[in-house]
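Our preliminary data section would be incomplete without showing what the modeling component actually yields. Below, a chain of 204 amino acids is followed by its predicted structure, encoded as tokens that our downstream tools consume directly.
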Amino acid sequence: MTNSKPYVLAITGASAQQVAERCLYLLLESQLTIHLVLSKGAHIVWQSEIGVNVPVDSGLQEKFWRERLGTSKGKLICHKWNDHSASIASGSFRTKGMIVLPCTMGTIGRIASGISSDLIERCADVHLKENRPLILAPRETPLSLVHLRNLTSLTEAGAKIYPLIPSWYSKPETLEDIIDFLVIRLFDHFDEELKNIQRWQGGI
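Predicted structure:
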């Protein structure tokens, strides 16, 4: 499956880095191809919240993720946040879609305004203009009117907004259960079955 069209997974500097990490693991374990971009802010959050320095160098970062996640499956290509010459910066480079997880409100505001100050924002702009799936997972509360207007603009432009809200009907017993549900439900939008989860069966 690694020769199929890839996903772009972008990670920005909001809390919920653990969800992004689990997402990357499940995608690789499913033998998929992933183009990964961490924003400059994401590197800072990893250091401040998790106490881990994620390498900036693309080659070293790929090795880092392989060792940290303990998987040799799938195909992983890492890009630096300011590499505007990367393949994923071009509309001619085809993908299955792009996920920004978690997505800061600053990133959402810049994408909504058509500003491409880094590779993540440029790649998101490409997905909108090429009418390809773009899913943004904001991690912020409460939402101001500015946030809501930016989210509305992006929805009107074709993006999907996926707030990181857990389910309780799945009866999660661990934090990993909650995280897995969030990731699996996100990829339902791509008809991608990464892992079995407890889904709503109806009834009370």
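The mean pLDDT is 94. The chain is about 40% helix and 15% strand. Preliminary results of this kind motivate Aim 1 of the renewal.
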